Amino acid sequence: MSDVRSGFRRQGLVRPRQGRLIAGVCAGLGRRFGIGPWLARLLFIVILMVIPGSQIIVYPILWILMPNED
Questions:
Q1: Separation of alpha carbons 28 and 67, rounded Å
Q2: Measured distance CA(32)–CA(47) in Å, rounded
Q3: Residue 4 CA to its chain's centroid (Å)
Q4: Does residue 15 contact residue 28 with C-beta atoms inside 8 Å?
Q5: Is the Cβ–Cβ distance between 26 and 37 less than 8 Å?
Q6: What pTM did the predictor assign?
């Protein structure tokens, strides 16, 4: 699992310590793709509404796999 986390870290997918609401997953995705955290949260919710039930799986998996910002 440390290989996955180090790969995420190299790609810039980290959960920031500032600006978190729950775990920082959407804030980290927003930072990685160059958009604001609120827009990232909105897009995350819209995408997850298209695929019902996926939020139960996707968010916790990203929470586990994305490392914290140093």
A1: 10
A2: 17
A3: 14
A4: yes
A5: yes
A6: 0.81
pLDDT in tens, 5-64: 888 888 888 998 888 888 899 899 999 999 998 998 898 888 878 887 777 788 889 899
SS3 36: coil
Cα distance between residue 8 and residue 66, in whole Å: 6
Number of domains composing the chain: 1
Q: What is the pLDDT of residue 21?
A: 86
Query: Would residue 23 count as lying in a domain?
Result: yes
53 is written with which tokens?
């039930």
The verdict on residue 70 lying in a domain is no
CA dihedral 45, 47, 49, 52 (to 10 degrees): -120
Could you give the residue ranges of the DSSP H alpha helices within 1-70?
2-10, 25-33, 37-50, 55-65
